[in-house]
C-alpha cells in the first residue's frame, strides 16, 4: 500500500514544506550556553576540591570567557524572537512546564554570578587593577570570603544550564529526533567537553593541560556512548523515530554528522589526546579547536534536522 | 462545555471554501492560512482511495503548545479553545515546534497565530466561519458535553478518527470516515 500526502493551498513562510522556525541563532545560543556551563562547572569543581593552585586557568582565567558567552548567547536568543519588543514578558512569569521559561531564569541568575566570579579574581590576576569605590572593596572582600558557597551555587546552576540546552529541544514531543531523554545529558556532556577544550587551549601550564586533556578524553567517550545510545534508541522506536535516525544513517545529514561531529569533532581529537598521553608532542590548539568546532556543528545539525522530523498521519 | 468539530471526509470535496472564509473572517495575512486541505491517496490504480481533510488547530486537551509557552501567551479558554494572547507572545517559536500538526505560524507582525475556533463568533452563538460556509455541509461544530448537539450526534452515528493520536495531545477535531 502506498500513501501519499499532499497539502494543497498551503505555503506558509518558515513552516512549509519543512518547519524552519528556529534559525542559526538558536544553535549558537545552545552552544554558548553549553560552553559557559562547562567552564563554570570545572571552575567551581576545582574550587570545591581545593585545587585552585594547580588549575589556575580552569578556576581563574577560563571563566573570563563566560560573561561574554552568556550575554552573547542571550542576545542570540533575542535575535531569533519574532516579537522582540515584548521580550520582557519572558521575565514577568515563571512557568516550570516550559523549558524556555526556566532556562531563561537560570540564565538570569548565572550570568550575574559569572560576572561576580570573574570580578573577584581581577585584583589577583591583574596586579594594577584598582576598584574605584570603597564599597566595591567591601563587596570583593565579602565575595572572596564566601567563594566556596558561590562555587556550590554555580556548580548546581551550571549543571542545570548545561542540561537545559538539551531539554529545550527534547521537550518537544512533536519533533521525534529531539524527543528522547538522553539529549539533556548529551548536551551537558558535550558542553562540558567544549568548555574543557577552551580552557585547555588557554592554559599555559603543562600539568594543568594534562589533567584537562584526561578529563576531556573521558567526556568524549561518554559523549560517544550517549550518541550511540540516542541512535539505537531511535532505531528501536516507532516509525517516526526510525525516520528521524535515518537522517543520520543515509539521509541528508549523514555526511555532516559523521564527518564533522563524530570523526573530526570527537574521534580525531580523542586520538590526538591519547597520543599525547603516550608522550607524543601535539599542539594543544588542534584537538581543542576540533572539539570546539565539532560541538558547534553538532548543535547546528540537531536544530536543523530536528525541525524537519514530524509525525506522519 | 467542550467545543469540538467533526468533519466528514466522505462529503468534503476539497473546494477550499473553508480556507478562504477563514482568511476573510480573521484577516489572515496574504500567503498564510489557519486551515488548509490535505489529500491522502491510498493504494494504487485501480484500487485507489482518496481522503480529503480540512485541517486546523485541534484545540487539544493535552496541548503541548500551552505547556511550553514561557509567558502564558498560549492559553485555554472556556470550552477548551486554545488561544494566543498577542500582547504576551514574544515570538519565541516554542509552541510552533511543539505542535505535531504544524497548525501554528509566525504572523508577520511577530506574534504567533492559529485557528481560534472563531471564538469571537462562537461566544455570540454563531458557528465558526469555515463551518458556516461549507457548501457540502460536511462540518459539524458544537458542545461535546451536550449529548444532543450537532457534533455529539455526528460522532454517535459515524465511525471517526483523530489525527496522530499517538502524539498524546487528545485532539478535538474529529474526522468522520
Ligand atoms: S493542534 Fe497544535 S496548536 Fe492546536 S492545540 Fe494542538 S498542539 Fe496546540
Ligand atoms: S511564540 Fe508566543 S505563544 Fe508561542 S510559546 Fe513563544 S511566547 Fe508562547
The H-and-E topology of chain A, N to C, reads as: EHHHHHHHHHHH
Total domain modules of chain A: 1
How widely separated are the two ends of chain A? 15 Å
Helix/strand-derived category of chain B reads: alpha+beta
CATH superfamily of chain A: Formate dehydrogenase/DMSO reductase domain
Low-confidence stretches of chain B: none
Strand order of the largest sheet of chain B: 8-1-10-9
Question: In DSSP terms, counting alpha (H) and pi (I) runs of 4 or more, how many helices of chain A?
Answer: 11
How would you sum up the global shape of chain B? globular
The main β sheet of chain B shows up as: 4 strands, mixed
Protein described:
The complex is a heterodimer of chains A (313) and B (177). With 313 residues, chain A is an all-alpha fold. Chain A has a single domain (25-308), classed as Formate dehydrogenase/DMSO reductase fold, CATH 1.20.1630. Chain A has helices at 25-48, 56-61, 65-79, 99-125, 134-145, 147-170, 183-202, 206-235, 239-246, 254-277, 285-308, and one strand at residues 3-8. In chain A, helix 4 (99-125) packs across helix 5. Chain A is globular. By secondary structure, chain B is α+β, with helices and mostly antiparallel strands. Chain B has six helices and ten strands; from the N terminus they run E-H-E-E-H-E-E-H-E-E-H-H-E-H-E-E. Chain B has one domain (3-176): Alpha-Beta Plaits, CATH 3.30.70.20. In chain B, the strands form four sheets. Chain B has a four-stranded mixed beta sheet with strand order 8-1-10-9. The interface between A and B is large, with 49 and 49 residues. The structure holds iron/sulfur cluster (2 copies). The site of one iron/sulfur cluster has 15 residues of chain B, from helix 3.
Amino acid at each position: 500500500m502506498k500513501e501519499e500526502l499532499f497539502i494543497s493551498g498551503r505555503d506558509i513562510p518558515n513552516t512549509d514544506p519543512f518547519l524552519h522556525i528556529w534559525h542559526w541563532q538558536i544553535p549558537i545560543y545552545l552552544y554558548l550556553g553549553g560552553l559557559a556551563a562547562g567552564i563554570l562547572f570545572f571552575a567551581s569543581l576545582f574550587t570545591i576540591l581545593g585545587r585552585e593552585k594547580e588549575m589556575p586557568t580552569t578556576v581563574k582565567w577560563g571563566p573570563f570567557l563566560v560573561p561574554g558567552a552568556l550575554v552573547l548567547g542571550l542576545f542570540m536568543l533575542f535575535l531569533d524572537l519574532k516579537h522582540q519588543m515584548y521580550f520582557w514578558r519572558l521575565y514577568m512569569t515563571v512557568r516550570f512546564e516550559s523549558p524556555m521559561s526556566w532556562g531563561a531564569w537560570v540564565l538570569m541568575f548565572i550570568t550575574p554570578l559569572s560576572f561576580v566570579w570573574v570580578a573577584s579574581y581581577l585584583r589577583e590576576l591583574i596586579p594594577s587593577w584598582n576598584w574605584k569605590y570603597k564599597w566595591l572593596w567591601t563587596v570583593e572582600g565579602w565575595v572572596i570570603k564566601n567563594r566556596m558557597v558561590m562555587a556550590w551555587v554555580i556548580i548546581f546552576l551550571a549543571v542545570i544550564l548545561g542540561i537545559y540546552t538539551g531539554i529545550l529541544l527534547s521537550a518537544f514531543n512533536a519533533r521525534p529526533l529531539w524527543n528522547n531523554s538522553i539529549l539533556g545529558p548529551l548536551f551537558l556532556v558535550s558542553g562540558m567537553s567544549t568548555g574543557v577544550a577552551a580552557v585547555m587551549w588557554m592554559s599555559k601550564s603543562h600539568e594543568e593541560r594534562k589533567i584537562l586533556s584526561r578529563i576531556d578524553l573521558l567526556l568524549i567517550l561518554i559523549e560517544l556512548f550517549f550518541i550511540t545510545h540516542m541512535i539505537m534508541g531511535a532505531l528501536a522506536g516507532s516509525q517516526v523515530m526510525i525516520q528521524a535516525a535515518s537522517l543520520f544513517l543515509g539521509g541528508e545529514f549523514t555526511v555532516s554528522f559523521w564527518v564533522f561531529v563524530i570523526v573530526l569533532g570527537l574521534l580525531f581529537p580523542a586520538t590526538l589526546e591519547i597520543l599525547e598521553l603516550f608522550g607524543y608532542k601535539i599542539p594543544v590548539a588542534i584537538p581543542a579547536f576540533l572539539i570546539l568546532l565539532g560541538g558547534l556543528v553538532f548543535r547546528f545539525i540537531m536544530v536543523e534536522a530536528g525541525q524537519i522530523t514530524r509525525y506522519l498521519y | 462545555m467542550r467545543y469540538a468539530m467533526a468533519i466528514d471526509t466522505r462529503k468534503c470535496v476539497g473546494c477550499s471554501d473553508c480556507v478562504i472564509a477563514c482568511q476573510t473572517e480573521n484577516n489572515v495575512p496574504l500567503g498564510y492560512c489557519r486551515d488548509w486541505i490535505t489529500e491522502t491517496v491510498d493504494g494504487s490504480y485501480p484500487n485507489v482511495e482518496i481522503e480529503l481533510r480540512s485541517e486546523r488547530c485541534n484545540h487539544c486537551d493535552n496541548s503541548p503548545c500551552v505547556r511550553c509557552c514561557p509567558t502564558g501567551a498560549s492559553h485555554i479558554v472556556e470550552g477548551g479553545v486554545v488561544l494566543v494572547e498577542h500582547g504576551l507572545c514574544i515570538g519565541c517559536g516554542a509552541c510552533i515546534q511543539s505542535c505535531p500538526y504544524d497548525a501554528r505560524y509566525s504572523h508577520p507582525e511577530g506574534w504567533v497565530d492559529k485557528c481560534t475556533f472563531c471564538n469571537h463568533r462562537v461566544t455570540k452563538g454563531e458557528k465558526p466561519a469555515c463551518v458556516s460556509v461549507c457548501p457540502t455541509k460536511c462540518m459539524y461544530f458544537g458542545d461535546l458535553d451536550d449529548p444532543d448537539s450537532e457534533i455529539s450526534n455526528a460522532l454517535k452515528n459515524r465511525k471517526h478518527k483523530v489525527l496522530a493520536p499517538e502524539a498524546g495531545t487528545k485532539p478535538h477535531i474529529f474526522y468522520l470516515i
